[in-house]
Each structure stands twice: as structure tokens, then as C-alpha cells.
Design a protein that fits this description.
With about 260 residues, this protein is mainly alpha-helical. The protein is about 75% helix and about 0% strand. The chain has nine helices and no strands. The N and C termini lie far apart (about 85 Å).
Length: about 260
Amino acid sequence: MKRLLLIPLDNITSASDTTLNPSLFTNHLLEVKDNHPLLHFTKYDYVVGFVLLLSYLLFVWLYVTNRKRLHQTITGLFIYHASILGNRNESAMNNRITFFLFLLFLLTSTSFIIQTELYYNVIEVATATIYISAFLIISVIYSTKIIVTKWMGLLFQTQKEAEDYILNLFLFCNALGLFLLPIVIGLTFVKQFPVDLFIKVGFIIITLLICSRLIRGLLIGFKSVRISKFYLFLYLCTLEVVPFLIIAKILMMKIS
């Protein structure tokens, strides 16, 4: 038969009572600063968070209400006639969709600029100042392109070609806004990959779309007998190639 080992209750109580043990927080040289726990808040840029939230909500609304239009935007990058026909129908029937897609492009492109600046610390100014400045600069650049294109179309009696080029401009801007959205989200929240990897991918996407837009603009000009090839080349260099090269050169000088 097994024997039961009886232990006095007093021994169990004294062995399990940890209050009788010496405290770890006594007899040391550390000075007490706060007797109550303090909450630790991680520094976060709320401007970036607000812009990302607004961009995501705008994309969700466009996807739910105008999924066909988003699909048409991506398809138009590869099919020229589909892009021109779709953009003409869109601009004639529902101009607000083009406006909101262009707004998404402004939000995502400025977010990408903000994230790039925060990573490389090119200029030491407030994030809100960078965002407002980038938003206004991009808006002024594309507004100038549209005004100059319309003016040249009226001057050289090529309104149809000018309208096609403006629609082509909106197409690639809208597509760039959609492609940059996951990039800026990854820059903010994804920590498993290096930040510069997302920045490089973003610049590659921007470069490819700008080159594709230039090629599409050349096709629009070459297909028309009313457009001078010299003026077409001058226009593309003045308003498309040169500004992009200047911005890229400035960024490379600041980053290096």
C-alpha cells in the first residue's frame, strides 16, 4: 500500500507566501522618477495617415461604384483605341469619375513624394508643408499642360488631336494613381522589406508610365497630317521630357 505524506499547513503557507521574500526593488542605487505607470506613444505622422486613409476610401468608393471604369483605365494602357473611345465616352457622360481618378493620382503621388522625403530627409520642413507644396506644384504642372495643349490645338487647328492627347494624359495619370496606391501603403506599413525597395519600384513605375505616355503622344501626332513633326517634338521636349529630367537630376543630387 502507498503511504500518504502529510505536510503541516503552516509549512505550505510559509513556502508559497512570496511577500516574505526580499524585494528586488530595494537596496539599489536607482532613483524613482514616477510612482505610476506611464503610457508610451509612438511618434507618428498624422498627415501621412490622413492622406492614406483618404486615398484608400476614394479608391474603395471608385471600385464599388465604377469598377468598369477602373478596368477600362488599366486596359487603355495597352489598347490604344479602347482608351480613346472609353475616355471620350467617360468625359461626355460622367466627368466626375475622371475628376475623382485624377484626385486619387494627386493624393497618391504627393504621398509618394512625402514618404521619399521623410526617408532621405532632402529638405527639413514640416510634412504638411511638403504635402501642400507638392500637391500645388503637380496641379499647376498638369493644368499648364492642359491649357497649353488646348491653346496649341486652337492655334494649329488640331482640336481633335489635342483632345486625344489630353485624354491620353488623364489616362496615364489615373493609372499612375492606381499603381502608386499599394506602393505608398507599403512604404507606411510594411516593415518586412527595405523602404528604399518600395521607393525604387515607385520610380520605376513612374518612369515606365511617362515613357509610355510619350510614345502614345508620338503616335497621336504621327497619325495626323495636320501636326508638324517639329512642333510635336518641341512640345514633348518642353513640357514632358525636360521637367522630368530636371526633377530627376535634383533628386539624384540631393539623395547622393
